[in-house]
Design goal:
Helix content: 25-40%
CATH topology of the largest domain: Rossmann fold
CATH architecture of the largest domain: 3-Layer(aba) Sandwich
Number of domains: 2
Radius of gyration: 22 Å
């Protein structure tokens, strides 16, 4: 079985007729395999489907819309919630994509919810990093733009920059009008999550470096490894 421009995902030497495949799928409630698709350059180029990707994806569904074979989209991109990405993919590809079928670069952060659910955390990156973490269930989230607004001189070279981040929190007018949601002296930041690549690299690297100096490096490394191993095992269980 070939899926157009993606190359061969599955191949059988003795290809069974379609009725036999239907019978096989009825006998087994779960498929013996799952498929992970990349998005950019494989399924889509920008917002345009590549080749026959929509038609190929439809072959993974039964006539009445249920999944015939489990599949998901795996991408190192992000910055928006999985629910929104699933909605966009559904619209562009003409099939019903669930949020659980979208795994983005920051999706493994869900596995840290129990540890940091009620702790103050910082979400870095472009897009809507704070919204992403909030949708995962984290209760106290600040974007780095919001965090930077608490400190007057956190970016000493800001006056020389000819760009701004998407949300401007560090102007004098906004700083006066901003009502602090957290007291950063008593409510200490316990973790920083890089949700996507930042817009202002200089400010974000400087700010996150200072944050990391207050955290325990060996715990961070351990948590990252544990999260990705756990997420890989979850996908294997889902596919089987």
């Amino acid at each position: 079985m070939k899926f157009g421009p993606f190359g061969t995902v599955l191949r059988w030497k003795n290809r069974a007729p379609l009725p036999s495949l239907r019978l096989l799928s009825q006998l087994h409630s779960r498929s013996s395999f799952g498929i992970a698709f990349d998005i950019d350059g494989v399924i889509l180029r920008g917002r345009v489907p590549i080749g026959g990707s929509p038609q190929a994806l439809r072959r993974l569904y039964r006539d009445y819309g249920a999944l015939k074979f489990p599949f998901l989209f795996l991408t190192n991109g992000g910055g928006i919630p999985e629910s929104r990405r699933a909605s966009e993919l559904s619209e562009l590809l003409g099939v019903n994509i669930l949020p659980s079928q979208v795994v983005q670069g920051h999706s493994p952060f869900k596995n840290l919810l129990k540890r940091f659910e009620n702790e103050l955390i910082i979400a870095l990156g472009k897009g809507e990093p704070a919204l992403v973490m909030s949708e995962y269930g984290f209760k106290k989230v600040l974007s780095l733009d919001e965090y930077a607004s608490y400190f007057k001189n956190i970016d000493p070279v800001s006056q020389y920059k000819n760009w701004t981040t998407e949300k401007i929190f560090n102007s004098k007018a906004n700083t006066k009008d901003l009502v602090p949601r957290y007291d950063l002296l008593s409510d200490r930041v316990k973790a920083a999550f890089v949700v996507s690549d930042p817009v202002d690299w200089g400010r974000d690297i400087q700010s996150s470096s200072k944050l990391l100096h207050s955290l325990c490096f060996f715990r961070i490394h351990y948590l990252v490894a544990d999260v990705y191993i756990g997420y890989a095992l979850n996908f294997i269980n889902y596919a089987n």
